[in-house]
Amino acid sequence: MEKPQRNWDTKRVQKAQRLAKISNLMTGKYVETNQIITVLEALIAPGDKVVLEGDNQKQASFLSQSLNLVNPKKVNHLHMIMSSISRPEHLDIFERKIASKIDFSYAGAQSVRVSQMIEDGKMKLGDIHTYLELYGRLFIDLIPNVVLVAADKADKAGNLYTGFNTEETPTIVEAAAFKDGIVIVQVNEVVDELPRIDIPAGWVDVVVPADKPYELEALFTRDPQNITELQILMAMMAIKGIYAEHGVQSLNHGIGFNTAAIELLLPTYGASLGLKGKIARNWVLNPHPTIIPAIESGWVESIHSFGGEVGMEKYIAARPDIFFVGQDGTMRSNRVLGQIAGQYAVDMFIGSTLQLDYDGNSSTVTRGRLSGFGGAPNMGHNPGGRRHSTPAWQSLRDQDNALGKGQKLVVQMVETYGANKKPIFVENLDALAVQKQAGLANAPVMIYSEDTTHIVTEEGIAYLYKATSKAQRQAAIAAIGGVTPLGMTSTKESLDQLRHAGIVKLPEDLGIKRSDAKRSLLAAQTIDDLVEWSDGLYEPPMKFRTWS
Amino acid sequence: MSTAFLFPGQGSQEVGMLRAVPTQYIERIKKITGYQLEDLPENYEDTVFIQLALLVKGLSALAAVQRNEIRPDLVAGHSLGAFCAAVACKAITFDDAVRIVYQRAVLMKAAYPTGYAMGVIVGLTRTEVAQVVQDTFDEMHPVYLSNENCPLQHTISGEITGLQKTLAAAKLRQARTAKLLKVPVPSHCRLMQATVAALTPFINQITFHPTICPYLKNTDGRMTQDTEVIRQDLLENIAQPVQWNQMMDVAKEMGMNLTLEFPPGNTLTKLIHAKFGERSIRTINIDQHGVDDATFLYQKWR
Fold first, then answer.
1. Which of B180, B200, B218 is the last residue of a domain?
2. In Å, what is the CA distance from B62 to each residue of A87, A431, B24, B55, B263?
3. CATH of residue B120
4. Which domain of life is it from (chain A) (predicted)?
5. CA distance A230 to chain B (A)
6. Do B246 and A110 touch (CB under 8 A)?
7. What is the pLDDT of residue A470?
8. Which band of pLDDT confidence, cut at 50, 70 and 90, is reported for residue A548?
9. CA distance B149 to chain A (A)
């Protein structure tokens, strides 16, 4: 057989040609801040796959704003790959016809415009992925031609320090650097010596000092003042009826006030139950300020984080036994490894949602808002092939099946009436209408019913994994549905049966008095209390301060 | 930072609101349309008066604000307010806005001189209101679901006895408020389709100009700077629900963090507070603060 002749390095040659076009603008790997538009126009070709770094915390904001200013006659039809669509210009590039296609995971802050633009055909949707699917696909069939990322500091050679907010930067860079893609980095600061090297200069093609530091938001700070007694009641139920019941040792918490309440009850209510050292020891968690009292009172062994949190830097640096901290004394986060750990290496995920259907499927996609999801679909499911031997995992095992294995605990914690005073439980998820409107292959469900093992409401806990039929599952959800239309379908007889079978537990079944759920149980009742717990190391951002 | 200019529509008018309007504006209206605006209580029953009065109230304040060098990054007007918004982004001139609105109001009044109106329902979702409207629908007294002001505030438009029946049914389904609005025509529903057709040749003669900032569309909540799209929106909004809720969502996503609501009233500011809370967006209400204080606040916050 005759082998056809071909070149095996076309992409490498093309990359060299593109970089040659800007050689006159480069000093080493550096280009001037005010040359960035010319640089982008030279390095990005029509139709390129481009990763623009934006996740829910850190944003390559200088590069996104600059990309929006390129000439659409020169740069167009880009296929954007972004874990999070967060900023107006992320969509303006589609309005300006610089980009035409998108693959993404999360669009919370731009979800209405995303819906509109997909419906209007201004933005062609590749897919809405879970984080790990999106990161994985960067190495399979969404291999980028150009990546635009952000770092805190660079040295003269182009080595990068990404520090607390390393997040997914190394992963994005790797997908381009080793496949002849072009890596363009905006940096806050150029220094002679880096605290440490997070990304080596050899992986980087172009460094540009940004006009101002990249955008960074404190997304995981929950002010304890806003935690209600209803949330405290639910937190007590969860600690006793789930954490203690199953012996949950490793876990992830969502970002809501419900789980913040749990964090703040561990050192008080949890301790009174004698649970210290027995539950909630190993975490994959963003550095929630509300976890400080649990750390300080010795509950927490370790925390690996997806990203940083503004204000937590000094505290984390002073707690290297707990957090992942480099020799230089600053944290290294890693979103990809954190997501893998959260999906594959923990006993439990517990979070909240905006809607649950009567079967227990949940979604935060509501009418007209194509928001996608954060980490919940990764962490909120049971990886089918996993085998695991922790007590919590094994406690969900079907004892009648010789090959039966355990299951990850996936817990949804919701008040029966949501923020707009409408029932959380809906007959049909809005996700179905949004699917039709946007022409999606799959309805944007966040966590599927089959993966959901428990639902906690202020009425009680439904142990869904124990239900033996779909009807029983629905009855269990109805039994803790309160006075919502779904809850009203539950009869006393059905409730008694479910309680008898251990499928539903009310606070009294757990030995919890509703009147005991008081704010005084919280280990910290204000942001100020958190600062005090941290020995003054936690420095809350301005908007969370009650003092000046 | 992004500043939005917001202009209210019918329902916000108050007797006496023309007193503070400089007389040259009233005279200008008379000159263009032949209509003499007189601030008498009985005139507030007439949609031609109401629409011209609202227009001149908003546009005279706009001129004062513009003199103080305050510029919008986005403009949005609710129903009739859309014409003020179109002037604020310079898509049309003051005189052309007056011409179109006069024509629009006369046609609307001619189509439904009496017996029709609009109502508002607070505390139910759009799906819930749609259900009430469907359950109480009567062809002899038609009522349609119209504007979406915020997730739990919707309007209905139609024949007055039908409206009363639907509003009563909404109350039975736990609506917090369900009442008639001060709007004497059934705007923003299909009952106005013939009016749209009648207005088309008129609006098509008007010259539109390049805008200085994006305009938010009533009919589908999109943002645009395309003058033909704005022309269609101004034409068709009489017969389609105002997607105010979606317009404000888009404004927020575009970075809106300061709003100036033009007179009269504070309906749109209240909607911002209901939707986004009182902290995330700074609101300036010109009716409440006056142009000078509004300018001071704008300069402080901007």
1. B180
2. 30, 41, 15, 10, 9
3. 3.30.70.250
4. Bacteria
5. 21
6. no
7. 96
8. very low
9. 14
Q: Do B250 and A112 touch (CB under 8 A)?
A: yes
Overall average pLDDT of the B218-234 stretch: 97
B267-276 vs B244-253: helix crossing angle, rounded to 10: 60
- The DSSP output letter for A33 is G
Substitution target from A61, A110, A113 for chain B, most B beta carbons within 10 A: A113
A112 contact residues in B (CB cutoff 8 A): 221, 246, 249-250, 253
Domain check: are A397 and A497 in the same one? yes
B79 as an active site residue: the answer is yes
Of residues A374 and A313, more confidence is placed in: A313
Asked whether residue B16 falls in the same domain as residue B95, the answer is yes
Q: Do A244 and A333 have their domain in common?
A: yes
| Cβ atoms B21, B159 nearer than 8 A | no
pLDDT by residue (tens digit) across A8-65?
Answer: 999 999 999 999 999 999 999 999 999 999 999 999 999 999 999 987 789 999 999 9
Contact: A420, B151; criterion CB under 8 Å = yes
* Interface contact B253-A110, CB threshold 8 A: yes
Instruction: From B180, B207, B233, give the residue that closes a domain.
Output: B180
**Can you tell me the distance from the alpha carbon of A174 to that of A373, in angstroms, rounded to the nearest whole number?**
24
CB pairs < 8 Å spanning A and B:
31
User: Which listed residue (B60, B79, B157, B187) is catalytic?
Assistant: B79
- Binary contact (B249, A112; C-beta < 8 A): yes
pLDDT at A547: 57
Residue B233 in any domain: the answer is yes
For chain A, the first-to-last Cα distance in angstroms comes to: 79
- ipTM summary value: 0.93
C-alpha–C-alpha distance, residues A283 and A257, integer Å: 18
What mean pLDDT do residues A113-140 have? 95
Our CA-based measurement puts residue B113 at a distance from the nearest CA of chain A, in whole angstroms, of 36
Mean pLDDT computed over A498-527: 97
Q: Which residues of A touch B222 (CB under 8 A)?
A: 116, 120
Please name the residues between 181 and 200 in chain B that touch chain A, using a CB distance below 8 Å: none
* Residue A306 falls inside a structural domain: yes
CATH of the domain at B70: 3.40.366.10
Q: Does A262 share its domain with A202? A: no
CA distance A29 to A201: 9
Q: Is A112 in contact with B222 (Cβ distance < 8 A)? A: no
Q: What is the pLDDT of residues A373-393, one digit of tens each?
A: 889 999 999 998 888 899 999
Mapping DSSP to helix (H, G, I), strand (E, B) and coil, where does residue A495 land? helix
Half-sphere exposure of A302 (CA within 13 A, CB side): 10
Of B152, B249, B250, the CB nearest to A420: B152
Inside any domain, residue B185 = no
CB A374 within 8 A of CB A256: no
CB contacts of A107 in chain B (<8 Å) are none
Structure confidence by residue, pLDDT tens digits, A328-371: 999 999 999 999 999 999 999 999 999 999 999 999 998 888 98
B108 and B212 assigned to the same domain: yes
The chain-wide mean pLDDT, for chain A, equals 96
Q: Is B188 a catalytic residue?
A: yes
Residue A402 pLDDT exceeds 90: no
